[in-house]
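User: Predict the complex.
Assistant: Input components as received:
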Amino acid sequence: MIHFDRFVLSNGLRVLVHQDNSTPMAVVNVLYDVGARDEEFSRTGFAHLFEHLMFGGSVNIPVYDEPLQVAGGENNAYTTNDLTNYYCQLPAENLETAFWLESDRMLSLAFSEKSLDVQRKVVSEEFKEHYLNKPYGDAWMHMREMAYTTHPYRWMTIGKELSHIEQAKLEDVKRFFFKHYTPVNAILVVAGNVYKDQVRALAEKWFGDIPPGTRYQRNLPAEPPQVKPRRMELTADVPLDAFYKTWHMSARMDDRYYAADLVTDMLGGGGSSRLYQSLVKEKQLFSNIDCYHYGSLDPGLLVIEGKLVKGVHIRDAEVAVEAELEKMKTTLVDEKELQKVKNKTESIMAFEDMSVMNRAGSLAFYELLGDAQLMNTELGQYRKVTAEDILSECQEVFRPENSNTLYYLSNPEKEGKA
Amino acid sequence: MTEKTLLNRKIAPRIKDAVDFNLELKPCERYTLDNGVEVYAIHAGAEEVLQLEWVFYAGNSYEKKDGIAAATSFLLKNGTTSKSAFEINEQFDYYGAYLNRNCYNETANIIFHGLTKHLEALLPLVQELVTDASFPTEELAIYQQNMKQRLTVNLKKCDVVANRLIDEYLYGKHHPYGKNNTHETYDGLDLDSIKSFYDRYYRHGHVKIFVAGYLPVNLFALLNKYFGQLPFASAPEPEPEHPRDPALEKKQRVINDPTGVQGAIRLARPFPSRHHPDFKKVQVLNTLLGGFFGSRLMDNIREDKGYTYGIYSYLQNHLKDGAWVISTEAGREVCEATIGEVYAELKRLREGFIEDDELLMVKNYLMGTILGDLDGPFQIIGRWKNLVLNGLDESYFYDSVRTIQKITGPELNTLAQQYLVDDAFYELVVV
């Protein structure tokens, strides 16, 4: 049970406090309700580029990292398709330093040309490192474009193409900042060796006078239901054929989400999962296979992906995957298997909650979902899932017309031996 | 709000310098099982989970044939006389537990993570794995096939190739720290070698146990029941001698992918183990050079030039011998410029005055991260394990802290003049 207090400043900033005096540290986590899904299709990658710029100095403080490090702290941030999250951890005695830094960059950035220029290059290198210079690195760009015709999950957080990042202008940066980086669009979580009254006083002092901004009204085009299977085949200089298949699934806050989450564990979670046992160990069609989903806030994708054993025809591999899914769609799972994936979920949650930093991040995330208390009640949602729920979820998700299949094939002329 | 003094946001709040903190390493409980196996335990943490690690002296330093130690480590979970790999996995999975194994140079571990309430149900199975693993033929064949495939994919990545090569240059291809598995290594694996390695280094090997988290009251009795009666060796076997055989040519350029858009850059020099008197001081110098986000390398090469997404330096954590490594991936066209900047930073550390402010930042950062790192039970036992395996005690920890607190700029300059010499470094770019 994670205890927390919650209050809202007059400018609309939501503040959560999680007190844990067993640690000498404090964590300050600021979540902004903006992600890659909020970008324009012609300026993708911007939310993530912007995250980099948040470290390039704010209106009153020339650099962010240095004073934090002087105070014995460290920090990082990440951007997803749904949100942007910044977190730092420092000795609790120096908590106010984090308030000073975080509030100043919520107030306003320095908007320096130099910082934009450098971070454009840094992000371009990040793009190359993770998506261009790795075998199969572009698979998800293709898959997203196939699976989403309309919704902005169509592109990855790094962006659709390098040129969008290279063309970012300081004007875009300013507009984005004042639209999204405001108290009404943010959630502040302070956790660790801290006290509610202390946090309230510091929050009032440092964040209280920041203009509230306008609540961002998200109005994204919904992805229309898919009515026909989609397929794509591409050939590249990779050593092995790879198989990717996705199905549209429910949004994070849908009641059906929990069953879908457990389905991915039955199929792809660990050494006793169905796909691994059947297709890697028994039939030896794949050298590795995974099943997972993105847990995205809008309707997301359930994924099966794997690399084929050399010499196996990809069509045969797909047929074998479908045969496993057919079992899920026609036969009730037994109680033992269902209990197994529920136990695993309980265990993962307990491990995640070990660190104060994770607890702070989770509180911010659940608050964004609508209620931080969900952090304490979600396990109950999983426990309620029945074998019948699993069956009907599989029947709903694993429909052929709901699927997107990508064959990522090895170029036979360039790749000889495995 | 009554009288509000105008907030001056340009002035930083007062801080307590982390360098003045009084850091304490939580003491570790020690037990000895009936057969002499040492157990180190940290009871801490609010969540009812634990981590239990068996460290065997079964790393690749002991193997007579390449790849045997790693294959034994991987396969010991894939079947016993009475259970298939699936049945073993299913039992751990059923209880939401994880059982992983890793093979290093001197040691190889088996590491359990799970809910404390399920520990008792699973310990007999771990016991079975370390006494009765059966190494089925089929499992070896699958392992060979899949590891070869994985290797083929990994060898397409410039960073993987660079990591392999730099270790070969530093130690030689036949040294445990320098050798890399190839397709031929996997083809050459055989069950007889694996089974005899298992018998000697696991079943009759030397093991130490490290456990942390929310510990059950009967932990010692449980460990004694399942592991205290087994025929483990009282001490590790002496390792065969492995002399270094470093490459003669220090500057290397390798083309792995003619169309690659980035190069993996590694600069590395040999550096002694943590028993060397300079090791603790050099850890501070390394932090300043490239050990954290505010380091000089990061500040210059990422935050000023934008050549890379990240650049780091680190001291390898081997038990016997080591190296000091600088590592980054940079745009193909700026690789040589990046190397030039690295050397410029080495020179600046040798010759330039180190400002008090910068040094204080490094010290505070280091102390703050140690404070944060001493927070969770798994981190605390990790520090203890490192001390125990290196044959050190807590005085090493406290000496390290004092070193951070006391070291001066001129001392760092002197160390830089001694170690950060351009000619001492291997220099590698893999495109």
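The first helix of chain A runs from residue 46 to 53.
Let me know if you want any component modeled separately.
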